[in-house]
Amino acid sequence: VNAEGLCVMPGLVDMHVHLRDPGLTYKEDILSGCEAAAAGGITSLLCMPNTSPVTDSREIITAIQKKAEQAKAHVYVTAAITQGLNGEALGDFAEYQALGVKAVSDDGKPVKNAAMMAGALCEARKHGLLVTSHCEDLDIIQGGIVNAGRVSELLGVKGMHRSSEDTVTAREIILAETNGCAVHIAHVSTRLSVQLIR
C-alpha cells in the first residue's frame, strides 16, 4: 500500500456508538453502523444499550454479538446499568461479565439515584466492567433542547443550562474516587466538566 502523504496508525476505537439494533434499525443497524465506522478508520466500537428492547438480557446481548460477527468493525457490547434503563434495579453484572460484555451504561438518560450509581460502580469493578455515564440532570434541563445562552434566546427555544452536565460529572467523579472505581464520562461538552475530569 502506497502510504505517501497519508497518516498510518492503529485502528481507532469509538467509545460511544448508537447502532440502534435491535428495534430501531430504521435509524441504523449493526452492519451499516460498522460499515460507516470502518470507512472512517474505526476498527472497534462500543455500542450503547438504549435499544428496543434494552440491552440488558442474555437474549439481546447474544443476538448483538451474533450479528456483529458479520460486521466490518469489532463490536464491544455495553449493557444497561439498570434493568430496562428504568433506574430502579441494577442489571445482572455477573451475567454480563460471563457473556463478554465490556461496559455498562444507562446512556440516553442518567442514573438519577446516587446510591444506585455507587452500587453500579462497585459491581462493575467487581466484574471487570467499565461504567460509562450519561451526565445530565434532567431536573435542571426541564425539556431544554440546546445550550442555554444567546443562540437559544435568538432562536426562541428552551435552553438547557450547562450545570445539568457539570453537577452529574462532579457526582460521578466523587463516587468513583470514594469507592476506588473507574468511570468514563461520555459526551463531555462543557468547560467545567473538562476541568473536573482533569
Question: Topology, please?
Answer:
Blueprint: E1 12-17, H1 30-39, E2 42-47, H2 58-68, E3 74-80, H3 93-98, E4 103-105, H4 114-126, E5 130-133, H5 138-141, E6 146-147, H6 150-155, E7 159-160, H7 163-179, E8 184-185, H8 191-197
Parallel strand pairs: 1-2, 2-3, 3-4, 4-5, 5-8, 6-7
Helix pairs in contact: 4-7, 7-8
Distance between the termini: 39 Å
The number of helical segments is 8
Mean pLDDT over the residues: 95
Run of helices and strands:
EHEHEHEHEHEHEHEH
Structural class of the secondary elements? alpha/beta
- Rounded to an integer, what's the Rg over CA atoms? 18 Å
The global form is globular
Low-pLDDT regions: none
Helicity range: 25-40%
Q: How would a textbook summarize the main sheet?
A: 6 strands, parallel
- Let me know the number of strands: 8
- Give the neighbour order of strands across the main sheet: 1-2-3-4-5-8
Question: How much strand content do the residues show?
Answer: 15-25%
Please provide a written account of the structure.
- This protein has helices at 30-39, 58-68, 93-98, 114-126, 138-141, 150-155, 163-179, 191-197; strands at 12-17, 42-47, 74-80, 103-105, 130-133, 146-147, 159-160, 184-185.
- It is of the alpha/beta class and 198 residues long.
- The protein is globular and about 50 Å long.
- The longest helix has 17 residues, at 163-179.
- Helix 4 links the parallel strand 4 (103-105) and strand 5 (130-133).
